[in-house]
């Protein structure tokens, strides 16, 4: 299967590495909105200007879109879906229905197949919520993120005057996890579920107290959480905080029996050294499914909920039943 | 959706309770090979003789088969698949391909749709293995069972002369779990992964030392494991060991990056108060999918690998995208 990567940031580089791990996949090239001459891929894969992708249409089975959800994907995914099978990782949960409708219309018009909102949340965590809720209808599920770097929260801190660099870790609160695992179904506030740990490099003349206050009182991002702010040097940032770990938990507890006398717990947990590389692994597996489904004539937009798991694996259905069932 | 339960042991009673938790499901009746007059259902659902099921063919959307894998299901599932959409929990892993072929042929001949080997292993654990291996191709997965009651091992002990009752718990070894969670990919023997804890009620005149030796040296079941044997009274058995808890873990660790420089861990864990009631919950969710797929004209045999997750949920795809993705 021949894939193109559109966008070459952390996620694009992760997709490039992931394609190498899948012998049935081949990378046609990386398409970028930067000057292609300034972009050097990690594997030596060719780099093309973004708009050149249409000239490669016949060589490409699917395009992995590696842009951002805020401004790139709402425009990019529907536009490319008219001509290509595309997979994106659109993660603005509230806007998924509108994004789905736009991509579905474009893909149906172009007789292509798309998958949106693929990754681990939305993505594998969504699947865990769906399976668990279908199996244990009388139950409640909880999603925790971290310990891991939130790019959005890190960016928000960097926009504060006097901040040179910042890294924000989202940290699940152990007492909340334990309460849920016990089978209790507590109602938890944002503050009771996660801590926010911030590491900040300040300009030499910056007012650190003002920065700390600006962070801790920032609405939506930090005001509703217990937040710690630690000032560090640029060297410490580089040495201790240059990785992008992440992960989290989806936990559902539920009751069965005529009187609800039995309690069950389903827990799905991810511990990731590299958020973008893991996300890329999910995208490539689902790209395999989209390629197969498109070759069976399917068109329109899909999500992870619509994909039969067997289509994700390089193994045949016979081999899957024999070795994994 | 109208369901029938065929077989009324622990799993059949679990299915009866699970149907009540799903407002879109209705129980037509319980079909049993015992004298129906001797069977009283927990909810007052009607009880019929097994062969009467054909007289109810037009009322039944799918049949939940609650027989055993050793002798019942290999004969029963293909036979009923000729006339009904059926779901079974066939769990003899080595015989799944042959069972699949027999059921597939029967279902195609009868223009019906079947699902075999549904539950948690095979079932949800199989799905976890498949998803994780597709996402992290350069990795290794491990399945642990327990702490929980193994009915097969308990039965094997009960067949020893002088044993009145027995309960066997399969117990994962914490050191093995920790080694795997660290990202190491050890090769582990059966003995290194699980302990076997046995609780035995012996006849008053039984030779306990001989029973203990017979258990610990039993090939396949116990000889390859560290096994503990504890003799208890019938009262203790009733008080402390009458439940059927189970559960376990599927853990895959794998590497990404051009030099495999990043390690990731995917873990799926179940902690179940009642193995049969949880298994029944899985069967009912997949019965919903089979009913929908059959109404779309699909025929033949399927496994959990072939089911798009959205078909498991009572929610519409729109609602799923809006609330769970």
Overview of the molecule:
The structure is a homodimer. Chain A has about 325 residues and is of the alpha/beta class. Chain A is about 35% helix and about 25% strand. The first copy, chain A, is globular and about 55 Å long. The model of chain A has no long low-confidence stretch (mean pLDDT about 95). Strand 13 (about 260-270) of chain A pairs antiparallel with strand 13 (about 260-270) of chain B.
H and E string of chain A? EHEEEHEHEHEEHEHHEHEHEEHEH
Helix content of chain A: 25-40%
Largest interface: A-B, 67 and 68 residues
DSSP helical segment count of chain A = 11
Total beta strands of chain A: 14
Q: What's the shape of chain A?
A: globular
Major beta sheet summary of chain A:
7 strands, parallel
Point out poorly predicted stretches of chain A. Answer: none
Structural class of chain A: alpha/beta
* Neighbour order of strands in the largest sheet of chain A: 3-2-1-4-5-6-14
Gyration radius of chain A, rounded: 22 Å
- Please indicate the percent range of residues of chain A in DSSP E strands (runs of 2 or more): 25-35%
So what's the oligomer here?
Answer: homodimer
Layout of strands and helices, then pairs:
The structure is a homodimer of 325-residue chains.
Chain A: E1 2-6, H1 10-20, E2 26-32, E3 47-49, E4 62-65, H2 72-81, E5 86-87, H3 96-110, E6 113-115, H4 124-135, E7 139-145, E8 148-149, H5 151-158, E9 163-172, H6 174-181, H7 190-193, E10 194-202, H8 208-216, E11 226-231, H9 234-240, E12 246-256, E13 262-272, H10 275-295, E14 300-302, H11 317-323
Parallel strand pairs in A: 1-2, 1-4, 2-3, 4-5, 5-6, 6-14, 10-11
Antiparallel strand pairs in A: 7-12, 8-9, 9-10, 12-13
């Amino acid at each position: 299967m021949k894939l193109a990567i559109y966008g070459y940031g952390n996620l694009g580089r992760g997709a490039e590495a992931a394609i190498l791990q899948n012998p049935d996949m081949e990378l046609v090239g990386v398409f970028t909105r930067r000057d292609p001459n300034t972009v050097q891929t990690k594997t030596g894969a060719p780099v093309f200007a973004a708009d050149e992708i249409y000239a490669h249409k016949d060589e490409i089975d699917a395009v992995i879109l590696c842009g951002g959800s805020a401004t790139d994907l709402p425009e990019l995914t529907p536009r490319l879906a008219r001509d290509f099978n595309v997979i994106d990782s659109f993660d603005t949960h509230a806007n998924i229905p509108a994004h789905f409708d736009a991509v579905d219309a474009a893909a149906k018009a172009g007789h292509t197949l798309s998958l949106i909102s693929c990754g681990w949340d939305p993505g594998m965590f969504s699947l865990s919520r769906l399976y668990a809720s279908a199996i244990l209808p009388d139950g409640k599920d909880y999603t925790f993120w971290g310990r891991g770097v939130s790019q959005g929260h890190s960016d928000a801190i960097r926009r504060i005057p006097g901040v040179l660099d910042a890294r924000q870790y989202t940290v699940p609160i152990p007492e909340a996890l334990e309460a849920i695992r016990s089978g209790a179904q507590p109602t938890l506030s944002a503050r009771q579920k996660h801590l926010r740990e911030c590491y900040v490099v300040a300009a030499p003349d910056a007012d650190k107290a003002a920065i700390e206050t600006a962070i801790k009182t920032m609405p939506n991002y930090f005001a509703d959480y217990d937040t710690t702010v630690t000032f560090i040097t640029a060297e410490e940032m580089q040495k201790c905080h240059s990785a992008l770990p992440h992960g989290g938990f989806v936990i559902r507890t539920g009751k069965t029996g005529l009187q609800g006398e039995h309690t069950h717990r389903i827990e799905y947990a991810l511990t990731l050294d590299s958020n973008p590389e893991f996300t890329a692994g999910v995208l490539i597996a689902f790209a395999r499914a989209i390629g197969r489904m498109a070759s069976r004539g399917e068109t329109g937009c899909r999500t992870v909920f619509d994909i039969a798991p067997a289509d994700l694996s390089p193994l045949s259905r016979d081999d899957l039943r024999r070795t994994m069932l």
